[in-house]
Amino acid sequence: MKIYNTLSKRKEEFVPIEEGKVRMYVCGPTVYNLIHIGNARPMIVFDTVRRYMEYKGYDVNYVSNFTDVDDKIIKAAMEEGVDASVISERYIEECKKDMAQMNVKPATTHPLATREIDGMLEMIQTLIDKGHAYVAEDGTVYYRTRSFKEYGKLSHKNLDDLQGGNRSLLVSGEDQKEDPLDFVLWKPKKEGEPYWESAYCQGRPGWHIECSVMSKKYLGDSIDIHAGGEDLIFPHHENEIAQSEAANGVPFSKYWMHNAFLNIDNKKMSKSLGNFFTVRDISEKYDLQVLRFFMLSAHYRSPLNFSAELMEAAKNGLERIVTSAANLKYLAAHAQGAQLTEEEQKLLEDANAYTAQFEQAMDDDFNTADAIAAIFDLVKFANTHAGDASSKAFVQGLLDQLVLLSDICGLIVLKEEEMLDSEIEALIEERSQARKAKDFKRADEIREELLSKGIVLEDTREGVKWKRA
Ligand code: AMP
Ligand code: ZN
Question: Least packed by Cβ within 10 Å: which of 194, 241, 375, 441?
């Protein structure tokens, strides 16, 4: 398996630090609003990396944080007149709902920055003790960037170029820095802001130290993969390396993976530009499986332009796979013969080539676009060779293969099992209660929900009757 490593700017063979195990950290969102579909790109891409690694037999420890203390969260809290934690807790819940709809697996651990302050203060103190950080007069703690000789190795930037570019950026209030390149590890609170006690001042952590500390706590000093969007390469990940390697004295992450942007009109989709759709917006029009399919239809390191046409194409593409799976399921349920014929045996062996093709694409730095092409080839093969005369073992074999490959991509292609009669009846009862209470909105929702599962309701004089469509 080859991974493009931002650190070496090359595709490298993946060799984990510990055999059979993958320790992976993905920088998560800052939770002050609903996530937009740009934020969804790393979630979907790296969830797929994780799923493929698991398929390959690795035990993956996947950590992804929520940044729950930040200027934007504090601003949102002040606007609403609530505590910052009200905002962050609300949007963590909403984010988790979106993730579930996109079939992004929950991380092994989702740490919250605000719960890890002790670890941050400990690492900050280590950095001060080792001469990599200093406390300014007002209690701000800065990282002494030039003290880390390898600074710039991830973003391939040269310190002196950075110095030149940064001089004009030296803003007021930062004049206590020894050097314009130094960055904040801990900063004093401002009026009304959340804060924690520390030896330096009442304050809160800088953004970069959060990830260094959460990664260390849940995965150890050296990890296999650290990932995020390409906007995080500099300064966020560069600074994380400087902090972690200076504090721990060992290499931080072996591989660094970065997804390219999701664009709109060829500009990065972002909250600050206002050119974004939330995942929730998209869910009003599409099943979020379609969004997932859309994201995986491009290689993660290629920019992807969002458009209505591409979403429609994704919908059609996914539907082709879903239809083929439904057809195979029907054939399996109605097949006459149980045993494979000799010819079918040979065809199933031929079909294995699509799994090999899929793996080859994924082994080449997770080329999901080509992996999906292999799934389409399998669909075509199944549509050509499976029919009424096929044995159950044959169609089931094709179906299992199709479901397995789709599942590695996190695509659900087999509709859920049919609802049980008792579940249907419970919903019908809830609906009549809602109607009695004149809650027609809820009553209609239930009718729609049942309809989406193929259950048709009929209101008759004798009560509600239902049938499977
Ligand atoms: P943020 O909440 O801005 O810190 O972003 C959370 C994650 O989403 C980071 O990994 C970002 O790099 C990523 N991200 C934000 N906007 C985009 C975008 N338009 N395309 C791809 N990734 C993005
Ligand atoms: Zn991070």
Answer: 441
